[in-house]
Design a protein that fits this description.
Elements (H helix, E strand, L loop, with lengths): L1 H11 L5 E3 L14 E3 L2 H8 L19 E6 L5 E5 L12 H13 L8 E3 L2 H4 L13 E3 H9 L4 H12 L2 H14 L22 H12 L5 H4 L3 E4 L4 E4 L4 H4 L3 E9 L3 E10 L2 E10 L2 H18 E7 L8 E4 L5 E2 L1 E2 L3 E7 L7 E5 L4 E2 L7 E9 L2 E10 L8 H13 L2
Helix pairs in contact: 3-6, 3-8, 5-6, 6-7
Amino acid sequence: MKRITEKILAVLLVIPLLIITASADMDIAETKIVTEYMSPDLMSDLSNDDETVMTAATGNIELNAKSAILIEQNSGKVLFEKSPDTKMPPASITKIMTLLLVMEAIEGGKFDYNSAVTCSEHSSSMGGSQIWLEVGETMTVDELLRASAIGSANDATCALGEHISGSEEGFVALMNEKAKSLGMTNTTFKNCTGLDAEGHLTTARDIATMSRELLKHKDITKYTTVWMDSLRNGQTELVNTNKLVRFYDGATGLKTGTTNGAGCCLSASATRDGLSLVAVVLGCDNSNNRFADAKKLLNYGFANYGNANVKIDRDELPDLPVTKGTETSVTLTSDNSVSFLVTKGKEGDIQKSFDLPETLEAPVKAGDTVGTITFTLDGKTLGQLPVVTSNAVSRMTFSKGVGRILKALFLR
């Protein structure tokens, strides 16, 4: 039965207007392949680069989603929100936390991408979206990551969790511990897959937080940006459940989610011209609307915001006089440049102010912080950079003074 189902899936992949959701994370007891029709208009909407410029002041974006948030990935700054703290079931967006813990385990040396993982009876029984792992079947961590990130496979995700903690229960405890450490105060995980469960809840804001954390691990986009792949020597096809990966310029991921309780959800990330954004939409009434909503949010961000790079010239930092030292002054240094997220058109309006002492008293160490550069825009502080000494100046002593005088006399 499994082989027949896989052949059916392979045939469906060649039909251009049928998008395979591979059970689309549905909370169902039996294995089921669901084909989801995406209209040509929506496909065009997702792929085009037309950006409706909306003023950042009003942020008037009509969304189908019950809850949503848009953040800048590096700073976490919120650019748009709609009921972002409403607790809702996240469906397979849950897998973002699973992927995060797997990436941390790999980078921490607990195992590597080629490590073998054997499927347990529990993992094999997950149902919903899956790659039909059989009890005792072995796959590598890399293969299971591909199945989880691309195909949203519940059995693969559970197998990874068990590989880390020995059981799903132990892994879920680790998930909740990590959520707490990230400040995800409105999140409680009950499983590692996202299948509907009593009390399995989070918020758009918390999802944006863990999405941002996952994207700090650069290797994850090697999985989340893949449109199509396969396992078992091509016998099992994988198609990314996130259609933006194929149709949205700059998409870097990240994860879809669909269950009866959650509706259609998406955490979408993208990067253009050095600006990285994360858009989260929860509770959409159909899959087309979640992608359309995410595109609206991302377009809004890219149309209205940009990174302003501010340079600090060396001649802006004066040498500071030093008293009671073997040298009369010390040179100062700071970072050469700094970048801030600003509303487009405001890049040239950033002001710099320097807070430095008039003098320093020796001894002075190299690398001592002696002041700050403050950056402001429209009267609001964007950030600060420390100003540090670039060299050391020791304190003048009697013996050093006599030595200098004698040296000067004999060198005449």
